[in-house]
Design goal:
Layout (H helix, E strand, L loop, with lengths): L1 E7 L8 E7 L3 H9 L6 E4 L15 E4 L6 E5 L4 E5 L4 H8 L4 E2 L11 H7 L6 H4 L6 E7 L5 E4 L4 H6 L8 E8 L1 E2 L4 E9 L2 H10 L6 E6 L11 E8 L40 H13 L4 E8 H5 L17 E8 L4 H13 L7 E6 L13 E9 L5 H14 L3 E2 L9 H7 L3 H11 L8 H6 L2
Parallel strand pairs: 2-4, 3-4
Antiparallel strand pairs: 1-2, 5-6, 6-10, 7-11, 8-9, 8-10, 12-14, 12-15, 13-14, 13-17, 16-18, 16-19, 17-18
């Protein structure tokens, strides 16, 4: 096992803190770290894709599980696979798809580990059908504060606290995942442009769940009559009769979108200090919107290009400046569309340089005590952390979301206040009580848990 002292941040590159990082080669080495933890505790970390501080532990220990990455054989009769927590979804997809299987839920990036997907209980673009990631877990191995490894099953209090529990109930070492059978490695994709937010929401609901996967890019720089305009993308798994004669049954494309090294803002001069400004963001969004088809159906794309198109792009973080980026994701329930409208109008009126903004629909709430997804609309966006007044602005959005009965995603948060989190997550007291019973000495801690009092 390797050990070093490092400065760590989340993917957003905000608020770096220093910790001792352990890289175990097996379960017993991981257990030894937990048993020998110091007064500041320990937190598990995967590939570091959480935008905020959920996988940081200032002055304590960080258990890097990226080396625990074994994939067991697929049980075709049961439709399950057993794998270590450090396996990335990208690798899992690469291994399973040629066998005719898919991981249970695929979020917007494949560069997240199975353990991270469980600890964050990540939703995918088919949440209304499949729920979040942990709902497709049939068992997990959890290293608890006493240094023991337990098999934890769905329907138990410990499972519900661990799903979306941000690593604070223990270290997920492995999991058994239910899989989805597919007959090709292609997706049949439909794309349509919406002129404003009302039009976009109407197009979302008009299609129902005929195509199970759906998400939209929203132009948060557009104002006036075009406020909230966007591009809706839907998809379904292609069947063999949809496949061109030359296409392989499960051929994967690991490269999609822009080629590595190409500018994401073609034709624009370098941005001063790397900071994405309002004018550049507005121009980029205009090009993207105008360059998309008004309506297109039946386009065939490789599975990886459909679910993880951004993974093939160059690293966008330098565009946001040295201060990094803040990822803000919230959800409000059906019937609270006016809140969504107000937030979109506020962002547009402020001329916030938002290039990445994703709108999704969620179905039934997941059982995790701190799971983010709940029935309604979810909007996720990235903003430069150095924007003047950004903290105050997002505090105001927090209040509006909380007043509507909505919530902000804890797994992606880097700046929310503890009282706001308590107002948004009614089962937080239940989570704290279970943690106090299971881990009275506070073995598992993170910068996020201290900041929010989790």
């Amino acid at each position: 096992m390797s050990v070093d002292t490092v400065s760590l941040t989340g993917w957003g590159r905000t608020a770096p803190t220093t910790a001792v990082r352990f890289r175990p080669r097996g379960y017993e080495e991981a257990a030894a770290v937990v048993r020998g933890r110091g007064p500041r505790g320990v937190i598990a970390r995967g590939l570091g894709r959480s935008p905020g501080d959920a996988a940081q532990n200032a002055g304590g220990s960080v258990l890097d599980l990226s080396g625990l990455a074994r994939i067991g054989g697929v049980d075709a009769a049961a439709g399950v696979v057993r794998c270590d927590a450090g396996v990335s979804l990208e690798r899992l997809l690469r291994v399973l798809l040629p066998l005719g299987w898919l991981p249970p839920v695929l979020p917007g990036t494949g560069r997240v580990t199975v353990g991270g997907a469980i600890g964050s209980d990540l939703p995918g673009p088919d949440h209304r059908r499949s729920g979040s990631f942990a709902r497709q877990v049939s068992a997990l191995e959890l290293l608890t504060a006493d240094g023991e490894v337990r098999t934890v099953l769905p329907g138990t209090a410990l499972f519900d606290a661990t799903a979306g529990g941000l690593g604070l109930t223990g270290v997920v070492l492995g999991a058994t995942l239910r899989l989805r059978r597919v007959s090709t490695g292609l997706m049949s994709v439909s794309t349509e442009r919406a002129g404003d937010l009302d039009d976009l929401l109407a197009r979302f609901t008009a299609g129902g769940d005929l195509l199970p996967y759906a998400s939209a890019w929203v132009d948060l720089t557009a104002r006036g009559r075009a406020t909230g305009r966007g591009i809706l993308t839907r998809g379904e798994h292609a069947t063999p009769d949809m496949r061109p004669a030359h296409a392989g049954r499960t051929r994967l494309s690991q490269r999609s979108g822009a080629a590595p090294g190409r500018s994401l803002l073609p034709g624009l001069p370098p941005l001063p200090g790397g900071l994405l400004g309002p004018a550049a963001a507005a121009l980029c969004n205009e090009v993207r919107y105008r360059g998309s088809p008004r309506a297109r159906t039946g386009e065939l794309r490789p599975v990886s290009a459909f679910f993880h198109s951004s993974d093939a792009l160059p690293d966008v973080r330098p565009l946001y400046g040295r201060g990094g980026l803040v990822r803000y994701r919230f959800t409000v329930g059906y019937g609270q569309e006016e809140t969504l409208h107000r937030v979109v109008r506020r962002i547009a009126a402020r001329r916030s340089p938002a290039v990445r903004a994703v709108l999704q629909r969620f179905g039934a709430a997941d059982p995790g005590l701190l799971s983010f997804a709940a029935p309604g609309w979810s909007l996720e966006l990235d903003l430069p952390a150095a924007l003047p007044g950004l903290g105050r602005f997002l505090d105001g959005v927090d209040e509006e979301v909380a007043a509507a009965g909505g919530r902000v995603c804890l797994a992606q948060d880097s700046r929310m206040r503890p009282e706001t989190a308590a107002a948004m997550y009614p089962r937080l007291a239940e989570f704290r009580e279970l943690r106090a019973r299971l881990d009275p000495a506070g073995a598992f801690r993170s910068d996020l848990s201290r900041r929010l009092g989790l």
